[in-house]
Amino acid sequence: MSDSKKHSHNHDDHDHDDDHSHWSDMELKVKTLESLLVEKGYVDPASLDVIVETYETKVGPRNGAAVVAKAWSDEDYLHRLRQNATDAIAELGFTGRQGEHMQIVENTDDVHNMVVCTLCSCYPWSVLGLPPVWYKSAPYRSRAVSEPRAVLSEFNVELPKETKITVWDSTAEMRYLVIPKRPDGTQGWSEEKLAKLVTRDSMIGTGLALSVDEVSS
Description:
- The protein has helices spanning about 25-40, 45-75, 75-85, 85-90, 125-130, 135, 140-145, 150-155, 190-195, 200-205, 210-215; strands at about 5, 100-105, 110-115, 165-170, 175-180.
- The chain is α/β, with parallel strands linked by helices.
- It has one domain (about 20-215): Nitrile hydratase alpha /Thiocyanate hydrolase gamma (Nitrile Hydratase, Chain A, Alpha-Beta Complex).
- A three-stranded parallel β-sheet has the order 1-4-3, covered by helices on one side.
- The radius of gyration is 18 Å and the shape is globular.
- The chain starts with a strand and ends with a helix.
Protein backbone atom coordinates (compact mmCIF):
# COMPACT_ATOMS: atom_id res chain seq x y z
CA MET A 1 0.00 0.00 0.00
CA SER A 2 1.24 3.43 -0.87
CA ASP A 3 -0.90 6.27 0.44
CA SER A 4 0.06 9.85 -0.17
CA LYS A 5 -1.05 13.43 0.29
CA LYS A 6 -0.79 16.18 -2.28
CA HIS A 7 -1.11 19.87 -1.54
CA SER A 8 1.06 22.36 -3.33
CA HIS A 9 -1.10 25.38 -2.57
CA ASN A 10 -1.66 27.49 0.52
CA HIS A 11 -4.96 28.47 2.09
CA ASP A 12 -4.39 32.22 2.30
CA ASP A 13 -6.63 34.96 0.91
CA HIS A 14 -9.89 33.00 0.95
CA ASP A 15 -12.60 34.86 -0.93
CA HIS A 16 -15.44 33.09 0.85
CA ASP A 17 -16.80 32.36 4.29
CA ASP A 18 -14.23 29.68 5.10
CA ASP A 19 -12.02 31.37 7.67
CA HIS A 20 -12.47 28.64 10.25
CA SER A 21 -10.06 29.96 12.85
CA HIS A 22 -13.32 30.95 14.58
CA TRP A 23 -15.57 28.36 12.98
CA SER A 24 -17.24 27.29 16.23
CA ASP A 25 -18.15 30.88 17.07
CA MET A 26 -19.55 31.37 13.59
CA GLU A 27 -21.64 28.24 13.80
CA LEU A 28 -23.00 29.41 17.14
CA LYS A 29 -23.90 32.81 15.71
CA VAL A 30 -25.67 31.22 12.75
CA LYS A 31 -27.64 28.89 14.99
CA THR A 32 -28.54 31.75 17.31
CA LEU A 33 -29.74 33.88 14.40
CA GLU A 34 -31.66 30.98 12.95
CA SER A 35 -33.39 30.32 16.27
CA LEU A 36 -34.28 33.99 16.64
CA LEU A 37 -35.75 34.19 13.14
CA VAL A 38 -37.78 31.03 13.75
CA GLU A 39 -38.97 32.32 17.12
CA LYS A 40 -40.09 35.61 15.57
CA GLY A 41 -41.91 33.78 12.83
CA TYR A 42 -39.76 35.12 10.01
CA VAL A 43 -38.48 31.70 8.97
CA ASP A 44 -40.29 28.39 8.68
CA PRO A 45 -37.84 25.76 10.00
CA ALA A 46 -39.30 23.06 7.75
CA SER A 47 -38.81 25.24 4.68
CA LEU A 48 -35.30 26.06 5.78
CA ASP A 49 -34.50 22.37 6.13
CA VAL A 50 -35.81 21.71 2.63
CA ILE A 51 -33.63 24.48 1.18
CA VAL A 52 -30.51 23.21 2.93
CA GLU A 53 -31.24 19.61 1.93
CA THR A 54 -31.80 20.65 -1.69
CA TYR A 55 -28.50 22.47 -1.99
CA GLU A 56 -26.56 19.90 0.01
CA THR A 57 -27.69 16.73 -1.71
CA LYS A 58 -29.57 17.57 -4.91
CA VAL A 59 -28.75 20.72 -6.86
CA GLY A 60 -24.97 20.76 -6.54
CA PRO A 61 -24.27 17.02 -6.68
CA ARG A 62 -26.52 16.70 -9.70
CA ASN A 63 -24.28 19.19 -11.52
CA GLY A 64 -21.17 17.23 -10.65
CA ALA A 65 -22.85 14.00 -11.69
CA ALA A 66 -23.50 15.50 -15.13
CA VAL A 67 -19.81 16.38 -15.43
CA VAL A 68 -18.74 12.86 -14.45
CA ALA A 69 -21.26 11.20 -16.78
CA LYS A 70 -20.03 13.27 -19.71
CA ALA A 71 -16.41 12.49 -18.83
CA TRP A 72 -17.26 8.77 -18.81
CA SER A 73 -18.92 8.87 -22.20
CA ASP A 74 -17.05 11.57 -24.14
CA GLU A 75 -13.28 11.19 -24.52
CA ASP A 76 -12.92 14.66 -26.02
CA TYR A 77 -14.68 16.19 -23.04
CA LEU A 78 -12.53 14.18 -20.63
CA HIS A 79 -9.45 15.53 -22.40
CA ARG A 80 -10.72 19.09 -21.96
CA LEU A 81 -11.36 18.40 -18.28
CA ARG A 82 -7.79 17.23 -17.86
CA GLN A 83 -6.46 20.32 -19.61
CA ASN A 84 -8.65 22.93 -17.91
CA ALA A 85 -11.37 21.60 -15.64
CA THR A 86 -12.76 25.03 -14.80
CA ASP A 87 -13.47 25.86 -18.44
CA ALA A 88 -14.71 22.38 -19.29
CA ILE A 89 -17.15 22.40 -16.36
CA ALA A 90 -18.31 25.88 -17.40
CA GLU A 91 -19.23 24.42 -20.82
CA LEU A 92 -22.10 22.69 -19.03
CA GLY A 93 -23.18 25.93 -17.38
CA PHE A 94 -21.76 25.19 -13.93
CA THR A 95 -19.87 28.23 -12.74
CA GLY A 96 -19.88 30.57 -9.80
CA ARG A 97 -18.49 31.15 -6.39
CA GLN A 98 -16.05 28.45 -5.28
CA GLY A 99 -16.25 26.87 -8.70
CA GLU A 100 -13.05 28.50 -9.87
CA HIS A 101 -9.61 26.86 -10.09
CA MET A 102 -10.97 23.36 -10.59
CA GLN A 103 -8.93 20.25 -11.25
CA ILE A 104 -10.13 16.69 -11.78
CA VAL A 105 -8.46 13.59 -10.36
CA GLU A 106 -9.39 10.20 -11.79
CA ASN A 107 -9.89 6.97 -9.91
CA THR A 108 -8.53 3.82 -11.54
CA ASP A 109 -7.96 0.21 -10.57
CA ASP A 110 -4.58 1.26 -9.16
CA VAL A 111 -5.29 4.66 -7.61
CA HIS A 112 -8.11 5.99 -5.44
CA ASN A 113 -8.31 9.75 -4.91
CA MET A 114 -9.78 11.46 -1.88
CA VAL A 115 -10.28 15.18 -1.21
CA VAL A 116 -9.95 17.10 2.05
CA CYS A 117 -9.33 20.67 3.10
CA THR A 118 -6.97 20.47 6.04
CA LEU A 119 -7.14 24.09 7.18
CA CYS A 120 -10.76 24.99 6.54
CA SER A 121 -13.39 23.59 4.17
CA CYS A 122 -12.67 24.72 0.62
CA TYR A 123 -15.24 22.95 -1.52
CA PRO A 124 -16.54 23.27 -5.11
CA TRP A 125 -20.09 24.40 -4.44
CA SER A 126 -20.97 24.82 -8.13
CA VAL A 127 -20.64 21.07 -8.75
CA LEU A 128 -21.18 19.55 -5.30
CA GLY A 129 -23.57 21.90 -3.52
CA LEU A 130 -23.10 22.69 0.15
CA PRO A 131 -20.30 20.82 1.94
CA PRO A 132 -21.49 18.07 4.28
CA VAL A 133 -20.95 18.61 7.99
CA TRP A 134 -18.37 15.81 8.23
CA TYR A 135 -16.23 17.42 5.50
CA LYS A 136 -15.80 20.51 7.68
CA SER A 137 -15.13 18.58 10.87
CA ALA A 138 -11.69 18.57 12.48
CA PRO A 139 -11.53 14.75 12.74
CA TYR A 140 -12.10 14.29 9.02
CA ARG A 141 -9.66 17.05 8.09
CA SER A 142 -6.89 15.47 10.15
CA ARG A 143 -7.61 11.76 9.81
CA ALA A 144 -8.15 11.85 6.05
CA VAL A 145 -4.47 12.71 5.78
CA SER A 146 -3.02 10.53 8.53
CA GLU A 147 -5.16 7.41 8.06
CA PRO A 148 -7.15 7.66 4.82
CA ARG A 149 -7.77 3.93 4.54
CA ALA A 150 -9.37 3.83 7.97
CA VAL A 151 -11.54 6.84 7.14
CA LEU A 152 -12.66 5.23 3.89
CA SER A 153 -13.55 2.09 5.81
CA GLU A 154 -15.86 4.15 8.00
CA PHE A 155 -17.60 5.27 4.81
CA ASN A 156 -17.93 1.57 3.88
CA VAL A 157 -15.30 1.87 1.17
CA GLU A 158 -12.95 -1.12 1.29
CA LEU A 159 -10.14 -1.04 -1.25
CA PRO A 160 -7.60 -3.71 -2.17
CA LYS A 161 -4.37 -3.36 -0.20
CA GLU A 162 -2.43 -2.74 -3.40
CA THR A 163 -4.60 0.26 -4.32
CA LYS A 164 -2.76 3.51 -3.75
CA ILE A 165 -4.76 6.21 -1.95
CA THR A 166 -3.86 9.77 -2.86
CA VAL A 167 -5.25 12.56 -0.67
CA TRP A 168 -5.63 15.97 -2.27
CA ASP A 169 -5.68 19.07 -0.09
CA SER A 170 -8.22 21.52 -1.48
CA THR A 171 -7.49 25.24 -1.14
CA ALA A 172 -8.82 28.60 -2.29
CA GLU A 173 -6.44 28.33 -5.23
CA MET A 174 -7.33 24.77 -6.25
CA ARG A 175 -10.41 22.67 -5.75
CA TYR A 176 -10.73 19.06 -6.81
CA LEU A 177 -13.44 16.93 -8.34
CA VAL A 178 -12.94 13.17 -8.22
CA ILE A 179 -13.97 11.28 -11.34
CA PRO A 180 -14.94 7.88 -9.89
CA LYS A 181 -14.39 4.64 -11.75
CA ARG A 182 -17.15 3.90 -14.20
CA PRO A 183 -19.15 0.89 -13.00
CA ASP A 184 -19.12 -2.29 -15.02
CA GLY A 185 -22.10 -3.09 -17.19
CA THR A 186 -22.82 0.50 -18.27
CA GLN A 187 -21.61 0.35 -21.85
CA GLY A 188 -24.00 2.17 -24.15
CA TRP A 189 -25.74 4.03 -21.33
CA SER A 190 -26.85 7.62 -21.91
CA GLU A 191 -25.25 10.44 -19.94
CA GLU A 192 -28.54 10.97 -18.12
CA LYS A 193 -28.62 7.35 -17.01
CA LEU A 194 -24.93 7.34 -16.09
CA ALA A 195 -25.40 10.42 -13.91
CA LYS A 196 -27.74 8.44 -11.66
CA LEU A 197 -24.76 6.29 -10.64
CA VAL A 198 -22.75 9.25 -9.38
CA THR A 199 -23.02 10.24 -5.73
CA ARG A 200 -21.69 13.28 -3.93
CA ASP A 201 -19.36 11.14 -1.84
CA SER A 202 -17.96 9.43 -4.93
CA MET A 203 -16.93 12.88 -6.22
CA ILE A 204 -15.15 13.63 -2.93
CA GLY A 205 -13.58 10.20 -2.87
CA THR A 206 -15.26 8.97 0.29
CA GLY A 207 -17.58 6.82 -1.76
CA LEU A 208 -17.79 4.85 -4.97
CA ALA A 209 -20.16 5.20 -7.89
CA LEU A 210 -23.27 3.11 -7.52
CA SER A 211 -23.37 -0.27 -9.20
CA VAL A 212 -25.89 -1.16 -11.88
CA ASP A 213 -27.72 -3.37 -9.37
CA GLU A 214 -27.99 -0.53 -6.85
CA VAL A 215 -29.67 1.72 -9.38
CA SER A 216 -31.93 -1.01 -10.74
CA SER A 217 -33.10 -2.23 -7.34
